UniProtKB/TrEMBL annotation:
Disordered: annotated segments: 313-333
Organism of provenance: Gluconacetobacter dulcium
Listed name of the protein: Transcriptional regulator FtrA
Originating gene: ftrA
Keyword Transcription on entry: yes
Keywords from the UniProt entry: DNA-binding, Transcription, Transcription regulation
GO MF term list: DNA-binding transcription factor activity; sequence-specific DNA binding
Amino acid sequence: MPDTTGPLVAALLYDGLCTFEFGIVSEIFGLPRPEMGPGWYRFASCAIEAGPLRAHGGFTILPDHGPDLLDQADLIVIPGWKDTEAPVPPALVDQLRRAHARGARLASICSGAFVLAATGLLDGAPVTTHWRHAAALQRRFPAIRVDSTSLYRETDRLFTSAGSAAGIDLLIAIVRQDFGPAAANSVARRIVMPAHRAGGQAQFLEHPVSPRANTDIAPLIDRVRQTLHQPWPIARLAKEAGMSRRSFERRIVAATGMPAGEWLAAERIAAAQTILRETTCPMEEVAQAVGFGSVFALRHHFRNRVKLSPREYRRNFAGQDTSPRTPRGGPPA
């Protein structure tokens, strides 16, 4: 354990360990950081079952500590879990409840939320996890309120985060709570991460819904994507597809999983994200290029879907190419 005197952070080890999730806990809390002074975190890994333990990637771990050390921890981190259907040992549930009752903080990364939910401490609270696990988490634990969009959530010393990399955001946010923004910024620079992404920020997915390759409206969907700057009311979409409005609405749901208006807004937002990342075009041009018509409409739809304003998104994710060229898909000059 490091020769420091700060809060004791304990990461759970289990058979089938999620290697990446454990690695980021160790990276942030376990590396020596003499520049932070003697009050920096102490870090330990605690096996909840007898070793050696298998980890993703084809290697095994020989733990230094068993579950007893959890009784001393100030922060317990659950770095993923074996499987969304894997039971949580009753002894671990009891230990986590006792830890929280004495004032410890509990945090989970990705599927680790299933372990925290099993304690009952999250009942009635908003909880996040990887978007792929959200439905399973809600089904197994109907008393919690699953937020499938946020990067991380906190309530009553209980922290949950979305998939893998969102765990880094959560852990840096915990560092910020404990040691202030300068320390959090220092840790973020060392691991080459943004210094701060708000927990309410959305889990970013590039075109999460794609039309089925064999759908008869796939050509129309491709054409709409190339001409998002144009108005595309449902009546026009149905006419272009050669269908009645009712038939088209059934086909678009079958192809994309969402109603036409919702799908079109998602496509406009995805296009706006690309322009914001890759150019420095003014917001007025971005709004026109993707068909929202005004900066107000762009801001409204963008914040509803992405949980950030367009300017906040650009600030966090710009950098691939910042030339002030004409946005793709925009109207001809």
